[in-house]
Every structure is written in structure tokens, then in C-alpha cells.
Amino acid sequence: MTKVSDERAIWLGRHVLPHRAELRAWLSRRPLGDLEPDDVIQEAFAKLVGMASVDGIRDPRTYLFQVAKSVVASHLRSRKVVAITVSDTDILDIAGSDPSAEIVLSDRQELQRLARGIAALPEPTRTIFRLRRVEQLPQREIAQRLRMPESTVEKHVSRAIFQMSVLLGRGGSRRVVASKGRVEAERVEDDTADRTGD
Fold first, then answer.
1. Rounded CA gap, 67 and 90, in Å?
2. Which among 45, 80, 98, 106 would be 20 to 30 A from 147, CA to CA?
3. Model-level pTM?
């Protein structure tokens, strides 16, 4: 791990992880749709791991709860899909829905990088990540299946997400930037392209 990731792990351990049980209890009293509290917590942790900097966070507990609330809100909003029925696509002037060859190639390359990254994860992190993110099993079921505490499963998933975000972040993919002084994802992408000479 790099020095930055070690610092982030220490920061998460000191300022965020102590609030996990309180957040889980708070989430269990809220309407989450079809989400599990542990899913929300995991997604909130992933967002914190993916941040460019945590320096602007003055109250980590409040920020963690706000991120969790945002995860739930985004999920609930995405469930409200509005169907539009149009018989003639010319009315909407819709271009072909097939992606360009460049997009297909780029997506394949990113998928290959992701597959190599997953394969490089140590055991049991690799197995736990595959069960959680690929097969989408709940953490509780993974813990029971592998006969380990749920908190251990959560720790392995967090590690894997962090390692995957570092891996994919190096390839010029869009990074999630959250906190004071936000930078749009396109700007981050442009900066990355400038450094690589594209």
C-alpha cells in the first residue's frame, strides 16, 4: 500500500469505523427500500475510500451519516423509473443504441484490468469480494457460509473495494471526488489526460 492509503486506513479506523454500530442501528430504523443496512454501510465506506481527500471533513461521524443517507436517497430515486412509450423513434431523433468501437474496446480493456485486479487479491479477500460484488450475496450470508464474523467479511470487502478503486483510478477512469472543493469528474479526467499526454 502507498503512504496515502495507509493514512486513509488509519483515518477510517480512528474516525469512521467506531460509528459503524451506531450507523447500523440508525439505518435499521429507516425505510431503505430493498437495501440492507450493511449494504448502505459498505457503499458509504466505499465512497469514503474513493475520496481524493478527507482533509475537509470536520465531523467524520456526521459526514458518514450524511453519505449513508445519500446512498439510500440515490437508491430510492433510482427505483422511481418513468416509462416513456414512443412508437416512432424518429420523433426523438435517437441515434443508434450500439456503442462505438472505441467505447467497446475501452470497456473491454477496463474489464480486463478489473478481472486481473480481482485475480490478484489475496484469499479470502478475493472470494469474499466475488461473493459480495459479483454474486451480490448479503454480508450475513457470506459470513455464515465462510464461518466468520460479519465484521471480518465487511473488512475484506472494504479492502477489496479500496484496491479496485486504486487500480481503476490509475487507468484514467472517472474518479469520485467528494468533499469541500469538489472537482467535476470530467475535469479530473482532463487533468489525467494532460499528464499522460493524450
1. 41
2. 45
3. 0.41
